[in-house]
User: Fold this.
Amino acid sequence: MVALAVLVEKAAAALADYDIEILEMHHNLKVDAPSGTALLLGEAAARGRDISLKDNSVRSRDGHTGARQAGTIGFATLRGGNVIGDHSVILAGPSERIELTHRAQDRTIYANGATRAALWAANQPAGLYSMADVLGLND
Assistant:
């Protein structure tokens, strides 16, 4: 997911005139919406645009809403079944649409990531690190 956030930030910066929508789906027992991961992706998009997500977030549309406001970041939330977590960031331009998607198919990805981080951290000097450091994305 960290790699996806880096890609979203870069795409949002490079495609400044494209609309951004974030679509997420989780299992039917999830109680928060949008998910923390969807918000992480929204923050990445906002950083890429150098804007505040808080001031430019649209979290629901219903009824006659008028035209989409330029520069906003939209969120759509779906809940159903036993979906672990699907997240798509859609950058929609005048003649094309780019979709960056991550689908968690098994929860072991979280344990594998934690193990990878622990093995990496064992060889680092004391300090505060993130998964972006572990993946070499902060270089």
Observations:
- The mean pLDDT is 96.
- The two ends are 18 Å apart (CA to CA).
- The first helix runs from residue 2 to 14.
- The chain is about 35% helix and 25% strand.
